[in-house]
Amino acid sequence: MIDPLKPDAASTAAGPESPLQRTPESDRTEPRKILIVDDEDEIRQVLMDFLRLDGYAVSAASDGYTALASLERERFEVVLTDLVMPQMDGLTFIKTAHQQGHEAAYIVMTGFATWDTAIEAMKLGAADYLPKPFHLELLRLVVARAFEKRELVARAKQAEMYEKLAHTDGLTELYNYRFFQQLLAIELSRARRFQRPLALIMLDVDHFKSYNDLHGHQAGDGALRQLARLLKRSSRSYDLVARYGGDEFAIILPETGKSTAMEVAERIRSSIAARPIDGDGLVPATRVTASLGMASFPQDAGDESELIRKADGALYHAKARGRDRLWCAESPGA
Predict the structure, then answer these.
(1) Are 83 and 67 in contact (CB under 8 A)?
(2) Residue 132 in 3-state DSSP?
(3) Does the structural domain 177-328 have CATH classification 3.30.70.270?
(4) Where does the chain hold its CATH 3.30.70.270 domain(s)?
(5) pTM, to two decimals
(6) Which of 168, 182, 297, 302 is the most buried (most CB within 10 A)?
C-alpha cells in the first residue's frame, strides 16, 4: 500500500512518454480538466502534482462551497472529492452539483469508516470511488476509466443524434420522407402478417403558397413547425407522423380500421381549422386549413405504393371539392 502523500518511484520515473501515462485524450489540443476537492492541503497537492504528470489540467478546492464556485466558473470533466469534509460533506457537494447541472464524472475518495456514504454517493451518480489510503497507480486507472466512460457516453449520444438526424425532418422534427417509406413498409408487412387493419392519412395545407407569398418563407417555415406540433398533439401516441414533402404530411395509423381513422383525421382537420397560425410569432395569427385524404389496408390497397396512391387520390378529391375537408378512398366519386 502506497502512502498518497508519497508517489512511488515507478510512477515518477516513468516520465511523460510512459504508456501508463498516455491517455486516450492525448491527441486533444487542450488538456482535460480535473477538480480535486479535499480539505487536507498535502493530499490536494500530491494529487495535483501526480495528475499533472499525466498531462491533465488540475485545479483544487479545499471545501464543497469553493468547489461549487469553481464549477460555476469553469467546466471540469472529472471531479475527485473527499467524502468527509467540514462545512459541506462530499455527499452534499455531489448532490448540490447535480442539482445545479454540473455534469462531471464524480469520483469519491473514502476511508473504510465511510463506505456506506460512498455507496450512497454511487446511488447519486458518482462514477467511481477510491479507497483511502490508495495506490497512486490505482488513482491513475480510476481517473483514466472515468474519462473513458465519458468518451463512450459522448460517442453513444453522438451516434444517437446522427441516427435521429437520419430519420428526422430538420424543419419540423417529424419523421422525414425516406424514413416514412421504411415505416410504412414495416407496418404494412406487420398488418398483412397478423391480418390487422392499417390506415394512411395524407394531409396538405390549403393555399400554402399564398401564405408564403404574403408573409415570407421564414414565417412559412414557422407555420409548418406549428402545424407539425399540432399534428403530433392531435394524433394518437402510437400514430407515426411524417413530413412527406413541402407542405404535405403523412400519418400512418397502425391497428386502425377505416371508421376510427376517419375520426382521427376529422379531429386533426378541425384542430388545424380552429387554431390560428402565427408563423412562430413572426406574423399576425391567421386561420389556416388543411385537406386530408385517407385510405386503408386491406379495403383500399394491398401494398404501400397503392395505399399511398389511394390516399393521395382521396386528398386530390378533398382539394377539388373545396378544401378544408376529409375524403376517403371509398367515398363516392373517389
Answers:
(1) no
(2) coil
(3) yes
(4) 177-328
(5) 0.58
(6) 297
